[in-house]
Input
Amino acid sequence: MARSTSSIDTLYELEKEIFKLQLKAKDIELHLDDSFDHLQDNFYKMGWNSIFRGRRRRKQKREEEEASYGTGFIQGLLGTESIQILLQQLVPLVANKISAGLERLMERWFGKK
Output
């Protein structure tokens, strides 16, 4: 405990310093009680998190690495010139097939044009 910088010369100053220290001790006691109540209320959750936090972090890190690998692979694959040429030819064909299928579906639902 830190003592005030001035020396205590009288009985009044001594009683004043004792009173200050008692107030400080009471504040510390209340804070300790609040902390202990918080520990009692959240002990199970804090224990669970402290035990399984490492496993959860490792799993999350592994998932992020796998996602970045997959994204990098796909970007590399789509970045090649031959795949881009193939996609430029394939996309219009697929779009035509989808639009023809949607037109047949609309005719079936709403009747002939």
In short: Helices lie at 11-78, 81-110. The chain has a mean pLDDT of 84.
